[in-house]
Write a structure and sequence with these properties.
binds zinc ion, 9 helices, Rossmann fold, 33% helix, SIR2/SIRT2 'Small Domain', binds adenosine-5-diphosphoribose, alpha/beta, six-stranded parallel β-sheet
């Protein structure tokens, strides 16, 4: 199998009922991202930020992974690397074990004072205190606008070494993730976009359609049709 790096965005979780950000009635059409997804917004009104992420955490807990998550877990088991911009845990709940969450994770909490992280409670609150240093403030372990995404070193090495870079369900609006396709091309990889509609990024190939339909079909193309009787997704 070629060395494959997959980058997923909100579109891979859309059919699980989790909103995307920039589609019609997406999250950023309902909330001002400056108020709920920046360090300044958190400093100004931490309760509002906790409410926003507590609601998204509840939605994610109530959602189920879909056939695209299942197919990508099979591809990871065959050696692919999944990098996700998503903060939900649907890749993991579909069986993926080594996902790189470059924008952090809804299901983890972070101490803004000492950097400790731990599994987040269902609902976080302003007066939560850090398990390590006892202070805080405690915030969702999410990378906000203006902050440096996680694991960029590891992602850079993977992009340099890959044969195929695949962006699934992402608008390509937010850097550095939006620049990965160029990094991969410069490193000589072939590039594929899988999306409801083409995002306009520079991909060698584009497959359009809903992720739950086109991702399992593409994974079967890469892995060969599933062995009969193996667990479906
Ligand atoms: N199947 C496949 N693709 C879909 C589907 C679907 N069912 N539904 C939507 N999409 C595609 C849209 O066409 C769009 O290209 O998913 C993409 C969603 O784009 P965004 O809402 O911009 O989400 P994303 O690209 O993940 O945003 C990147 O921006 O706000 C920040 O940190 C946040 O991680 C997020 C980052
Ligand atoms: Zn602490």
């Amino acid at each position: 199998m070629p060395r494959i790096v997959v980058l997923t965005g909100a579109g891979v979780s859309a059919e699980s009922g989790l909103g995307t950000f920039r589609d019609k009635d997406g999250l950023w059409t309902k909330y001002d991202l400056a108020e709920v997804a920046t360090p300044e917004g958190f400093a100004a009104d931490p309760a509002k930020v906790h409410d926003f992420y507590n609601a998204r955490r509840a939605n994610a807990l109530a959602a189920a992974p879909n056939a695209a998550h299942g197919a990508l877990a099979r591809l990871e088991a065959a050696g692919a690397l999944i990098v996700t911009q998503n903060v939900d845990d649907l890749h993991e709940r579909a069986g993926a074990t080594g996902v790189i969450h470059m924008h952090g994770e809804l299901m983890r909490a972070l101490c803004a004072a000492c950097g400790a992280t731990w599994p987040a409670p269902r609902a976080m609150a302003v007066d939560d205190t850090c398990r390590e240093c006892g202070s805080g403030p405690c915030r969702p372990d999410i990378v906000w606008f203006g902050e440096i995404p996680y694991h960029m070193e590891r992602i850079g090495v993977a992009l340099q070494d890959c044969d195929l870079f695949v962006a699934i369900g992402t608008s390509g609006e937010v850097y550095p993730a939006a620049g990965f396709v160029q990094d991969a091309r410069r490193a000589g990889a072939t590039t594929l976009e899988i999306n409801l509609e083409r995002s306009g990024g520079q991909f060698d190939r584009v497959i359009t359609g809903p992720a739950t339909h086109v991702v399992p079909a593409w994974v079967a193309e890469v892995l060969g049709p599933e062995a009969p009787g193996s667990a479906g997704s």
